[in-house]
């Protein structure tokens, strides 16, 4: 093991980066993270152990400043979720990062790409491969790991496999279900990432990493079914040359949004198997050996059942979401068209019992009003490329700043008092939902606000179109939250 290094991690709010940072700290490295929105790290357990720098990877000055004094850069971001044009954006950022690293004296760049065959590739895989090439051709030596499907609680690949398998006992599928893939457990990906700092100085190459277990996608889904206690799925490979149609179907029946499902499904047209195992000459396998697919699924399901999912694929907002700035305080609404639906209810229930219900909202607990209406709205949102209601939540009882809750994201959390959610569904404007509880004599006062900033005439028409549904949904929500809080109080 090398001496402790000064390490910069980009993508620390994402699925991989959020799990890598605490492991680097555990190994004694001094860690700095570069993030667009530092508030998303407010509740992570390692918040006080790292240096947090605010910046954007499209801004060379802020990137260069963040890299100054660093030995190793972990470049763990991608722009796939930003939709059309993501490949150009990824390559521009890669050039900027490579140049800034050279100017700042960084000694090594570590990047995670994907396993792929030679020849024509999907736009997603072509972009990942091109980013790796740009980094390898830069002045700073780069370690480019190439991994297949990552299996772990909260990963996009695992969520896609899980929802497809659980939803469809019989699956007429495109012919790509016969493609060969080499999955890898998230714990093994992290092992190789952490050990990248131990590679010889000047190492500048790709390394294929995987479980050494080659399966078809059909076998992957039936392997999940076995671990989940489900009957074996009947998967029929059909000659359907329509990856876009399959991508739309995946977006509808899984939590993965259309902006991600389309490039992901296009990538499934190719085998993804290691072509070399050279990493074995430099990095020993994990102490307990490489994790097989069945064991990786078992571990992922166990973490989800115990509510121990550290990060999820949805943790990092797509860059387009940055336009949704935090809700301004009420006095600043002057000059802004604002629609508000406010409700409040007094109760003899103590505030802490009301808060328990508030913090548990969404996911399997639902939204305490007209579940069919929420479900229909979720399906409609999915059909136009929105988040829908299937993303659920990372932990069934506890929320943290930046967490996803179905089609919302936690923007502000004052534990015990206030929860503000920012909408990530497709609407012509910006929307928030605030849930607050305060002491009121011997009981509590629950207050609820839906806030909407319309965009143009379409935004105003949208509000008035759904206003009749609000008169049914929001009063019912307030009533049922208090009702459930009473049950919580009785059970305490």
From TrEMBL:
Annotated ranges, domain NAD(P)-binding: 11-120
Region described as Disordered: 311-332
Domain of life: Bacteria
Record field: compositional bias (Low complexity): 316-331
InterPro entries to which the protein is assigned, alphabetical: DUF2867, NAD(P)-bd_dom, NAD(P)-bd_dom_sf, NAD(P)-dependent_oxidoreduct
PANTHER family: NAD(P)-BINDING DOMAIN-CONTAINING PROTEIN-RELATED, PROTEIN YEEZ
Protein name stated in the entry: SDR family oxidoreductase
Organism per entry: Arthrobacter gengyunqii
Taxonomic lineage: Bacteria, Bacillati, Actinomycetota, Actinomycetes, Micrococcales
């Amino acid at each position: 093991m090398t001496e402790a290094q000064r390490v910069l991690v980009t993508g620390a709010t994402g699925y991989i980066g959020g799990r890598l940072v605490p492991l680097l700290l555990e190994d004694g490295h001094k860690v700095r993270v570069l993030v667009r929105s530092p508030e998303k790290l407010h509740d992570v357990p390692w918040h006080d152990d790292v240096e947090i720098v605010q910046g954007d990877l499209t801004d060379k000055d802020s990137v260069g400043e963040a890299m100054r004094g660093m030995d190793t850069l972990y470049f763990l971001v991608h722009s796939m979720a930003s939709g059309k044009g993501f490949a150009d954006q990824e390559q521009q950022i890669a050039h900027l990062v490579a140049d800034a690293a050279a100017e700042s004296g960084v000694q090594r760049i570590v990047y995670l790409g994907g396993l792929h065959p030679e020849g024509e590739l999907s736009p997603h895989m072509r972009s990942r491969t091109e980013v790796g090439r740009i980094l390898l051709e830069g002045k700073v030596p780069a370690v480019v790991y190439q991994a297949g499907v990552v299996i772990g609680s909260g990963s996009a690949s695992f969520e896609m496999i899980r929802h497809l398998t659980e939803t469809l006992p019989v699956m007429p599928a495109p012919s790509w279900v016969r493609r060969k893939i080499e999955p890898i457990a998230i714990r093994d990906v992290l092992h190789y990432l952490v050990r990248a700092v131990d590679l010889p100085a000047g190492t500048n190459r790709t390394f294929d990493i995987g479980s050494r277990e080659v399966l078809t996608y059909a076998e992957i889904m039936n392997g999940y079914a076995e671990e989940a206690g489900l009957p074996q799925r009947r998967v029929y490979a059909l000659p359907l040359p329509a990856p876009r149609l399959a991508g739309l179907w995946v977006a509808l029946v899984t939590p993965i949004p259309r902006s991600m499902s389309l490039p992901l499904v296009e990538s499934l047209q190719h085998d993804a198997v290691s072509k070399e195992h050279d990493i074995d000459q430099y990095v020993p396998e994990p102490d307990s050996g490489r994790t097989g697919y069945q064991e990786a699924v078992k571990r992922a399901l166990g973490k989800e059942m115990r509510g121990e999912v550290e990060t999820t694929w949805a943790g990092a907002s797509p860059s387009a979401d940055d336009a949704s700035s935090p809700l301004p305080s009420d006095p600043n609404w002057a000059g802004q068209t604002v629609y508000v639906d406010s409700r409040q209810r007094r109760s003899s229930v103590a505030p802490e019992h009301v808060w328990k219900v508030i913090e548990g909202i969404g996911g399997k607990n639902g939204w305490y009003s007209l579940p069919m209406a929420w479900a229909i709205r979720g399906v409609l949102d999915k059909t136009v490329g929105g988040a829908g209601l299937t993303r659920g939540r990372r932990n069934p009882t506890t929320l943290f700043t930046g967490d996803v809750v179905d089609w919302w994201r936690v923007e502000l959390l004052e534990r015990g008092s206030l929860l503000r959610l920012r909408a990530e569904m497709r609407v012509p404007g910006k929307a928030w939902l605030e849930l607050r509880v305060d002491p009121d004599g011997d009981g509590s006062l629950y207050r609820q606000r839906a806030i909407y900033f319309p965009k143009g005439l379409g935004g105003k028409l949208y509000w008035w179109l759904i206003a009749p549904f609000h008169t049914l949904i929001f009063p019912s929500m307030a009533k049922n939250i208090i009702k459930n809080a009473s049950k919580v109080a009785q059970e305490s």
